[in-house]
Inverse folding.
């Protein structure tokens, strides 16, 4: 700590800032970003985050492959994306600078840990000369800070070994940024004490590092001002900050209560879906049973078994796992049992890009099982929306006794946003009754149970679970006779069953789509899933530029909303941005013969608002 | 929950479905043994579930008047694991053949066994693929000539009992389709066991592998070639008990009792915690053409999987109270706007 007296610096008001913390994967950048997000949330800013980490747990230190980053956008107005490009980059080493500089806006601020810019690290990052000195940073506002050294000095008095001391430098960075954006100190002190409970030395070191960073901003004559971002004008109520995977897990837990059913999750760990397994495993007091199966196939098979027994059953995975679960899902289609398959989509094919998002499993969700094997498909549009969509998926699965595919992706999974907590009493009752009595008679007039006698309205079959007296019955994957469920190879019966399974899914009650943006526009963007935020923001920008644009966003992808064809037909031009090679476009063209135009991107990074805006302008010009 | 189960007759356990195995198939006698055993077990039909995969054996659930599921190939142990966890109150039997359980579903079988899920697994081993019309199976002998191995199979076979013991199954037994009483006894023991129990049933496929077990299971061959394991008794066989089993140099070996004396014979102890002796016994025979042990190889007490899962739920509820959604949604901190 220095003993210089604090200076009086001007306080400048900003509408928003986009900060990207970048460092080595062992530097604690995710934790730093998370904590900055929490403090900002508590101040009432709107925010959105975008974590970015390597697939390796500990990639080689100091290399480009090992860079871990966390982008957070905070604002005094409502936002739907973590922002296209950061305005502030915190770079903890040369590799972080090299990997991230291209993302920074021109004229943006770079706060850099100069201590890490030694020959060895420069070489590892592939720099031939020191970018801090060779003009690489011209055109940016660069703030060189010897973070490692100051951190070491600050923690030395607490008896921390120099080797361990440097591990607190992320808290130095957090302290500095907290000062820059006038964030309060207290919440981080509380966080440090909770997070490192029982490790006194670590607590002291991190606290000291944080204060050193905060004071450095105030006293070092490096910064010309600091900034304030006023609270956003959000609907009033109680908020929490949630990422997509946690919202999904909570949605599943909620669905169990709303359906008054015990929950079973059969899952096999896979990035980026494992956190749902982790979160639900913490909720045993909700009566939730999680089963870490021996493989993806056992995961779905166990869920089918549990559904037969009357549980609300889930299996969570990513694309490679869905591929393995194909036969199990087909069994659930044939057995007509409720099951929710959650796919957190990632880049492919094969192992592909485990930590990067894609929306390229839509066709697999639609057609990735042998024969005619229809399943409803549903996709959340934002991290918080995962909660609602999980409940909706369960509602459909239970009401129609069918497996349902929920398509999230790696972007929604890890990014977070403030969520106005719902009134729990307003959540829908999605309970269904188990079947308990005979539903037919035999030739002798005695009561019998017909496991495939359908509800005339929903075409769902009765769900009679083992333990129910008199209703003993057998179900299986072999084609069965409608009504009795007995094995049947009769050609006409098979045709009938194929038609019935299709009709049941086609008739799932799906709400109509609504048009956002300009109702009277000639131009519309159609999206699904996680592109919602970027499309929404692009519409706003187009409107600000005096253009008219509409936005239709699908939650239900199978069956499609009944009014979709009519809605889309009204527009002269429809483009469809999706993180695949045009899968929704193909479905829409095939079904409605509407010539909507694909806008595709598959580089593992979500669409930016600017990309969508530019695609929109191009499409408008062409029409 | 203390209701005494309704008294039943074997016929009460039969369905109205026509049994469609080939005439003369060993599966018939297994089905009969099961239907005859059920009334003796004093269990409720509605609390009993048969789960199967794919194959001839897997049609079994359709013929039992209980709850049942005919699943997909190899996955029956996984399906049943989910059911057993969701419904620990049920009595669950898993039925499959050697292809279903040892080949496509081998992974699920060993994991169900090591977890000790409360399942009674019956493995109908006919050493051939029946439903797909006669290819060699993972238990077929090396050199087996079939349509898919015209010059003889190259694959070393699995010994299901050895595999089960290797997976540290808590109950492992073997029986054969020519001895109804023995089958019923083994199924009864499997039922009494708490945890995963597996019974290998030597089963004759009279169409594609007829007589595969004849050398050991035919009445006149049994004395000389079936070694009946009995708890607490020296392991002895032969018409006059003239042969016995000893352990020598870390392996089980067949001897003439006259040569070693009765006191030197291995006394069978199915309750031994260490599975090594049981494993040695499983290696005694290279195939169903020489003296082969039947009976209970291993029956030990080990905590059952669903019971542990239920205990964790109770412990969590005890610590944190019953799950409250409102508290959950606020568990990561909230703020007011």
């Amino acid at each position: 700590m220095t003993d210089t007296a604090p200076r009086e610096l001007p306080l400048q008001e900003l509408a928003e800032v986009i900060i990207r913390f970048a460092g080595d994967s062992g530097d604690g950048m995710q934790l730093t970003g998370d904590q900055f997000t929490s403090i900002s949330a508590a101040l009432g800013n709107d925010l959105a985050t975008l974590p970015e980490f390597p697939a390796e747990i500990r990639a080689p230190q100091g290399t480009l492959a090992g860079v871990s980053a966390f982008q957070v956008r905070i604002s005094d107005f409502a936002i739907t994306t973590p922002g296209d490009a950061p305005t502030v980059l915190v770079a903890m080493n040369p590799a972080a600078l090299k990997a991230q500089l291209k993302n920074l806006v021109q004229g943006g601020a770079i706060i850099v840990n100069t201590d890490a810019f030694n020959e060895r690290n420069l070489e590892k990052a592939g720099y031939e000369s020191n970018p801090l000195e060779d003009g690489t940073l011209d055109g940016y506002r660069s703030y060189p800070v010897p973070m490692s050294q100051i951190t070491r000095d600050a923690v030395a008095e607490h008896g921390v070994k120099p080797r361990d001391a440097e591990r607190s430098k992320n808290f130095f960075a957090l302290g500095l940024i907290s000062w820059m954006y006038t964030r309060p100190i207290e919440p981080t002190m509380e966080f440090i004490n909770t997070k490192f409970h029982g490790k006194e030395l670590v607590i002291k070191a991190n606290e000291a590092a944080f204060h050193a960073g905060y004071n450095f901003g105030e006293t070092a004559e490096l910064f010309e001002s600091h900034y304030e971002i006023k609270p956003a004008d959000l609907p009033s109520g109680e908020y929490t900050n949630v990422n997509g995977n946690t919202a999904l897990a909570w949605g599943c837990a909620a669905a169990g209560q709303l359906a008054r059913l015990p929950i079973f999750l059969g899952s096999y760990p896979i990035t980026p879906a494992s956190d749902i397994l982790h979160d639900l495993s913490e909720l045993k007091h909700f009566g939730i049973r999680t089963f870490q199966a021996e493989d993806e196939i056992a995961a779905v098979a166990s869920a089918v078994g549990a559904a037969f027994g009357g549980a609300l059953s889930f299996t969570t995975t990513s694309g490679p796992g869905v591929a393995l679960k194909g036969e199990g899902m087909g069994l659930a289609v044939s057995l007509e049992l409720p099951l929710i398959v959650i796919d957190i989509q990632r880049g492919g094919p094969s192992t592909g890009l485990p930590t990067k998002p894609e929306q390229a499993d839509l066709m697999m969700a639609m057609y990735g099982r042998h024969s005619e094997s229809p399943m409803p498909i549903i996709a959340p549009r934002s991290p918080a929306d995962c909660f609602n969509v999980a409940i909706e998926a369960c509602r459909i699965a239970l009401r129609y006794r069918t497996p349902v595919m929920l398509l999230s992706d790696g972007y929604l999974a890890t990014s977070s946003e403030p969520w106005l907590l719902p009134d729990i009493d307003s959540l829908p009752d999605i309970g269904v009754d188990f079947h308990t009595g005979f539903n037919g008679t035999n030739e002798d007039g005695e009561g019998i149970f017909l496991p495939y006698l359908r509800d005339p309205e929903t075409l769902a079959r009765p769900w009679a679970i083992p333990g129910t007296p008199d209703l003993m019955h057998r179900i299986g994957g072999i084609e069965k006779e409608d009504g009795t469920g007995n094995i049947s190879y009769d050609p006409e019966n098979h045709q009938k069953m194929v038609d019935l399974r299709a009709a049941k899914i086609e008739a799932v009650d799906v709400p109509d789509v609504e048009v956002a943006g300009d109702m009277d526009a000639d131009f519309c963007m159609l999206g699904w899933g996680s592109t919602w935020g970027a499309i929404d923001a692009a519409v706003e920008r187009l409107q600000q530029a005096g253009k008219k644009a509409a936005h239709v966003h699908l939650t239900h992808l199978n069956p499609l909303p009944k009014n979709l064809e009519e809605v889309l037909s009204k527009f002269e031009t429809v483009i469809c941005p999706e993180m695949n090679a045009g899968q929704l476009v193909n479905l829409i063209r095939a079904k409605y013969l509407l010539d909507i135009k694909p806008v595709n991107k598959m580089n593992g990074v979500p669409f930016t608002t600017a990309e969508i805006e530019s695609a929109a302008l191009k499409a408008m010009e062409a029409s | 929950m203390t209701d005494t189960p309704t008294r039943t007759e074997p016929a009460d356990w039969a369905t109205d479905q026509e049994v469609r195995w080939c005439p003369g198939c060993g599966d018939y006698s297994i089905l009969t043994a099961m239907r005859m055993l059920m009334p003796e077990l004093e269990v409720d039909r509605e609390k009993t579930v048969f789960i199967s995969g794919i194959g001839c054996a897997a049609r079994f659930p359709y013929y039992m008047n209980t709850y049942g599921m005919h699943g997909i190939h190899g996955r029956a142990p996984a399906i049943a694991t989910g059911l057993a966890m969701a419904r620990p109150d049920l009595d669950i039997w898993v039925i499959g053949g050697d292809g279903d359980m040892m080949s496509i579903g081998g992974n699920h079988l060993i994991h169900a066994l090591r977890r000790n899920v409360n399942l009674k697994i019956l493995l109908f081993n006919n050493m051939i693929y029946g439903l797909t019309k006669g290819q060699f199976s993972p238990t077929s002998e090396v050199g087996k000539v079939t349509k898919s191995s015209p010059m003889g199979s190259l694959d070393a076979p699995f010994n299901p009992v050895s595999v089960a013991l290797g997976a540290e199954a808590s109950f492992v037994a073997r029986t054969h389709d020519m001895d109804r009483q023995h089958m019923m006894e083994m199924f009864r023991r499997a039922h009494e066991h708490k945890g995963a129990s597996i019974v290998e049933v030597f089963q004759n496929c009279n169409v594609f592998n007829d007589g595969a077990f004849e050398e050991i299971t035919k009445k006149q061959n049994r004395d000389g070639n079936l070694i009946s394991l009995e708890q607490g008794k020296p392991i002895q066989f032969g018409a006059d008990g003239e042969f016995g089993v000893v352990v020598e140099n870390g392996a089980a070996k067949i001897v003439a009792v006259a040569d070693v004396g009765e006191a030197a014979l291995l006394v069978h102890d199915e309750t031994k915690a260490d599975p090594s002796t049981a494993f040695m016994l499983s290696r005694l025979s290279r195939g169903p053409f020489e003296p082969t042990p039947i009976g209970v190889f291993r029956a030990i007490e080990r905590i059952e999987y669903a019971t542990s899962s239920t205990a964790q739920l109770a412990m969590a509820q005890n610590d944190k109270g019953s799950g409250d959604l409102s508290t959950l949604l606020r568990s990561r901190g909230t703020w007011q706007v």
About this structure: The mean pLDDT of chain A is 95. Chain A has three domains: 11-228, 240-426, 515-622.
